[in-house]
Amino acid sequence: MQQRTRKSRGPGAVSRWMEHTANARAKRKIRRGHGKFMGMDVLILHTVGRRSGRPRETPLMHLPDGEHAVLVVASGGGDRNPDWHANLVAHPDQASIELPGREPVPVTPHELEGAERERAWQRVAAAQPRIAKYQSKAGRRYPLIRLTHR
């Protein structure tokens, strides 16, 4: 008997429902001014769907960087970048962030490279060792995105 291997198509309906429910709760907390989750600062990233063109809101952990924010494109340790990253790359001119208890502010994303990325990565790893642990097990290098206010 030949065993079939099923190609993963992403999370199932239950996983998507759980993620949607958790994200809705996180967004409510951020909007009420609660800016921490698991010891990290959180924000809501506003993007536009790369295929649908519909507005998207994603609660994310970030590293404050002066007036800017640095995002780690980790996808929970997954092998590919999350959808929010593809949306951000497809429509960078339509991105904004919502910090706890504040109105959304337009931002410009910039992927960090070279020495600039290394300095930011050292700060991320020191602030959140669990992210560095995920990176050590991942089959890809996590991009770092700096969001600067427009």
Write a structural description.
Helices cover 33% and strands 29% of the residues. It is α+β, with helices and mostly antiparallel strands and 150 residues long. The protein has one domain (33-149): Pnp Oxidase, Chain A. A hairpin with a 6-residue loop joins strand 5 (96-98) and strand 6. The N and C termini lie far apart (60 Å).
Provide a compact summary of the structure.
The model has no long low-confidence stretch (mean pLDDT 90).
Give the tags.
alpha+beta, Pnp Oxidase, Chain A, 6-stranded antiparallel β-barrel, 150 residues, globular
Topology of this structure?
Elements (H helix, E strand, L loop, with lengths): L12 H19 L4 E2 L2 E9 L6 E11 L2 E5 L10 H8 L5 E3 L6 E7 L2 H14 L1 H9 L6 E6 L1
Antiparallel strand pairs: 1-2, 2-3, 2-5, 3-4, 4-7, 5-6, 6-7
Helix pairs in contact: 3-4
Protein name: Nitroreductase family deazaflavin-dependent oxidoreductase
Pfam families: F420H2_quin_red
Family: Belongs to the F420H(2)-dependent quinone reductase family.
What's the CATH topology name? Pnp Oxidase, Chain A
The ordered H/E elements are HEEEEHEEHHE
Mean pLDDT: 90
The tally of beta strands, per DSSP, is 7
Measured distance between first and last alpha carbons: 60 Å
Query: Shape, please?
Result: globular
Strand order of the largest sheet: 2-3-4-7-6-5
Low-confidence stretches: none
CATH superfamily: Electron Transport, Fmn-binding Protein, Chain A
Task: Give the domain tally.
Answer: 1
Please work out how many helical segments DSSP would assign. 4
Oligomeric nature of the chains: single chain
Tell me the strand percentage band: 25-35%
Q: How does the major sheet shape up?
A: 6 strands, antiparallel, barrel
Which CATH class?
A: Mainly Beta
